[in-house]
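Batch job 17 of 40 flagged for manual review because the log was empty.
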Amino acid sequence: MRGIISPKLVPFLEQANKAIAEAKDKAKAKAKGQAFSVDLVRQGLDNLAPLIGAGPHMDRVKNSYLATASHNIPVRIYNPAPNDNLPVLLHFHGGGHMCGSVDLYDPISRKLAIAAQAIVICVDYRLAPEHPYPAGLDDCQQVLMHYQSLLFDMKHSEVLYLAGDSAGGAICTSLVMNNCCDSSGNASSDVSTSMPVKIAKQILIYPSVDYTMSSASIDENGQGFLLEQDKIHWYFQQYFHVNSLDQTKTKKASPLLGKFSANMPSTLVITAGCDPLRDEGIAYAKSLTEVGVAVEHHSFDGMTHAYMLLNELVSEECLATFRLISEFVKAEPNHK
């Protein structure tokens, strides 16, 4: 069923749809008929920065990096209470695996730290097309395995949460499958793991979990609601470095199509009613429930994909989302 948009977003979407059409024309003129260009799409997401608004004050913010054999992985660490032994939350930003940054998501990382009362580590993982699958996912796996080394000068507890929106949700769910399932159930067996890391909870905001684009909402909400079907397809072409999507590869990489286990962590899934990715988020929550994982699912029916980047327009919905996150992490875990 096609979503019914909130009146709060109607003027914005009218402007956005006009800008999307103009950007496609501009890209076609510059890039041999291609409807999108990497630079224009990245700039388009960065242009939402004024609508995200400012984040709250944080007692300590630190730029750091995790060194690997081949490169350094930049991170930004947010500590709302340096004198306390807080849980740790790894934050993976959205952007279709090819856009977004720690800088753009800074206000959201700050709000996550306050909502979860946790030390947030936001990861500036490598982006496609310069670094196609599974490079960015591998960066996030490395941070998951070694995050405590980044906190050598901070108090923290052993409790670990993962959080991500859109492509960041894909990263969360892939890491969970890689760390909680056996090798035959990995969503992304291209990503190497060592000893499993204990993940207490995961928080997924309009997650991308099916690279095959098989859900009905892809067609129903795939035009006019900011994230469009043809752009999703193009994002995935860049991510997997292919001209046409290979179903074998996309199925293997899709967390929704992987093996679910009762060992997976309690999960909060938040979906948006006017989002092309709505149905796959709902299906992921259902699959977790079927194997006995504790799941909370909340839908913001009048919202588009990426509404958390539109705080200045839908502040009540964004505030409600952070409230749900706060309640979720503070609740006692359900024991299976």
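Reviewer: the log was empty due to a logging misconfiguration, but the result itself is present. Residues 63 and 76 are 5 Å apart (CA to CA). Unflagging and moving on to job 18.
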